[in-house]
């Protein structure tokens, strides 16, 4: 696979009721990819989308989440951008928890799942000077890169 191939971005209202639609759209966009790859992207995409819901428009309704999907160099990458309101917080895996703290914890497992499933993941602010949101992404190595006909050539 040469160049970068990208699907059009998809926008979703920042509510939990949109999770099923996002998953359905993502599965449709990944048509033609290996089933294990689709499952991994859907699992991690669901976690990333749900994390965005905590922060979009500071957790108030009316915010939105934007999903991006692209393929480059034998990898497929999914990303989600929230509307902001993180208060400067960044996604972190809480490695320093004891077994008891993990047992009682209400959060933090999703990023562990993403780290264990994706080839690589990361995040960046939309803007360095103010809290306009954060883009979080995960990349997955393709076992046999497909060439679906409905991809847009962007580079």
Automatic annotation (TrEMBL):
Name of the protein in its database record: ATP-binding protein
Which Gene3D superfamilies does this chain map to?
Histidine kinase-like ATPase, C-terminal domain (3.30.565.10)
InterPro entries to which the protein is assigned, alphabetical: Anti-sigma-factor_SerPK (IPR050267), HATPase_C_sf (IPR036890), HATPase_dom (IPR003594)
Q: So which domain of life are we looking at? A: Bacteria
Q: Where is the Histidine kinase/HSP90-like ATPase domain?
A: 18-116
Query: What are the GO MF terms of this UniProt record?
Result: ATP binding
Q: Would the keyword Kinase turn up in this protein's UniProt record?
A: yes
Record keywords: ATP-binding, Kinase, Nucleotide-binding, Serine/threonine-protein kinase, Transferase
